[in-house]
Here is the input.
Amino acid sequence: MTLANSQAEFHPRQREAATDPRKVRYDLRNTAGSILAATQKRVAKCGHRLVGPQASIVIGPHGARITGVETCGSVWACPVCAAKISEGRRQEVAECLDRHVTGTPIGGEGVPGDVYMALFTLPHTYTETCAELRVIMRSAWTFFLQGKAWKAARKRWGITGYIRAMEVTHGANGWHPHLHVLFLTSALSESDADELRVWIGERWANVVKRISGKEVRLGVGFGFQKACSVSAAGDYVAKWGADSEIAKASSKVSRKGGRSPWQLLADAGNGDHRARFLFAEYAAAMKGSRHLTWSVGLRDMYLSEPEKDDYELACDDAPHHGDMVIGALRRGVWHRVCRAGLIPELLNSAEAEGWAGVLALLRAHRLALPEAIYVNRRKQNDLHAS
Here is the structure.
């Protein structure tokens, strides 16, 4: 069966890319919400639907945010939540890797180790669905970690554990799920590392062959190298949903390397109906799956804080040190702000000029009273736009 794509795809003329990363995220979320309105209502309501009588504007150490609205917590389908989740995971991974390479586990002394980055892919054809390939990938990875051979490998190369992340793109050969994996090992010589690379590659090829009957070309479908730094390794598994990745969605033109889900969203917003269909397929296939997983016991060895789920990382309602509520928008005003697509501009104005900037923006769009509103600085948290 050929892996070539004989079906031409429609790629509309790109609109001028938004330069504000926040606006890119929010515009893409609006597109995702329109696509998933009937199937994943939490995504459609995310950041818009009130959970109380008003939406509060909070200024904190990390900028402005809105509280009092629903959060979907979808790392796969919501670019706004994905960016928050990605940053939270990146910090966790960075701390873990730093403790591993310096030999400082929680509650004791250890030995400095190495970190290796591995890429696992599957042969795939245009006719296979995203859901089918996800099941094959999950089964292959589960089988990879089973049996006496894996236990012997862990002992031989001092594999402390792994951190695994799944990503999905779509290109000429259809859906392309792949795994980014960090292996935390003891300090290995160059020859030992090369032996580990060969063993992992051959085992992956054998597992995929047994699970699906597909042949993995190791020169193309597998990669393995030592991480040059802790930050590079952390980005390797936690970059999904990062601002830099999402920002590319509205500006990337080349399709030779395939499109990320964020690029599918951007193209769907530009009128690409096939991209709209593909994103809906992808969101349905990935719903409920975990993006990043840790081997058993690894977190407890290097991290003292309990793991937060995606929703907890994405939710903005929890108070943070240094937060200040500068004002609130009542239901009617908030609904008009959402309809006008002004949330990114609202947050930017809050960061630049505080509540005065918010009022100026609302008045410019005729969403607040034109007369000056008396501000009692001691009661600034109780302000409302009317």
